Amino acid sequence: MQRVGYLGPKGTFTKMAVDALFDQGSFVSFDSIPACLDAVERGEIDTGVVPLENAIEGSVHLTIDYLIHQVDQSVIAELTVPIRQHLLVHPDYNGEELTHIYSHSHAIAQCHQYLYKNYPNAELEYTASTGRAAEVVIEKGVHVAAIGNHLAAEENGLNILTPNIHDYDNNHTRFAVVQKTQRKLEVKDHPIATQKTTVMVTLPKDFVGALHQVLAAFAWRKMNLSKIESRPMKTGLGNYFFLIDVDQPYDDVLFPGVKAELEALGCTLKLLGTYPSYQLDIPSPVCQ
């Protein structure tokens, strides 16, 4: 039986991604992204599911940096989930003034304008996850609220006071499915949006036009890049690596050609994963 870990507790968007991908296995929640990835590294679980990028707030840098600097794992799949943030209240709530609103920092940022206009006097408090925020409401009572999804409401017996409070409709998060020792991934049947490959490229120092030549190595081969992002190497100011998503599976012709061309320039290329990309659709809830 496959052992799957995820950023918990129950009621997080990560758990929603897990439920969409897997219909069998043993599932373990972790309090943080590093804890989940460390469990994969130690072999305590076979597969980890962690947030990778949000359409509004951008990349989850903790996930990227941990995968690059702390563990040796491959991305074997990704799932894009529409993020619908709702204002969740205690089941006994009856119109009391909300003094505090809890959620993950990304969730609060995604709802900034709504909170500013509707609850300017409420204290905004960060939690480790949206699922944990829902638990806090149960603990603290009717004068506080949480930002989270419908699953968090169901898991904790909360009511959705106001649905869809995020500032932008096109709010999606990509979740990475990672393994240390690759094994068959048993997932539900989903249509595959595309096949992707993610590589890490490091550049030599003081090389004029190096990034241009890196991109050219993909461009003249007509390889479409859907994302390129720089992150610090953590070895000193000005030292960066680049994460590049290529919209095609790894092959034995184009990618080795790119690698050889980049190595001739003094660059290095590391394969981080070649994988299917899935998408999930979630219907909008109704107020309770």
TrEMBL record:
Catalytically driven reaction(s): prephenate + H(+) = 3-phenylpyruvate + CO2 + H2O
Enzyme class (EC, first level): lyase
Superkingdom, taxonomy of origin: Bacteria
Source species of the chain: Halobacillus andaensis
Molecular-function GO term, any one: prephenate dehydratase activity
Record gene name: pheA
Residue intervals of the ACT domain: 199-276
PROSITE patterns attached to this UniProt entry: ACT (PS51671), PREPHENATE_DEHYDR_2 (PS00858), PREPHENATE_DEHYDR_3 (PS51171)
GO terms for cellular component: cytoplasm
Gene Ontology biological process terms in this record: L-phenylalanine biosynthetic process
Keyword Amino-acid biosynthesis: yes
Residue span, Prephenate dehydratase domain: 3-180
EC number: 4.2.1.51
Pfam families: PDT
Entry protein name: Prephenate dehydratase
Keywords associated with the record: Amino-acid biosynthesis, Aromatic amino acid biosynthesis, Lyase, Phenylalanine biosynthesis
Pathway(s) served: Amino-acid biosynthesis; L-phenylalanine biosynthesis; phenylpyruvate from prephenate: step 1/1
Sites marked Essential for prephenate dehydratase activity: T173
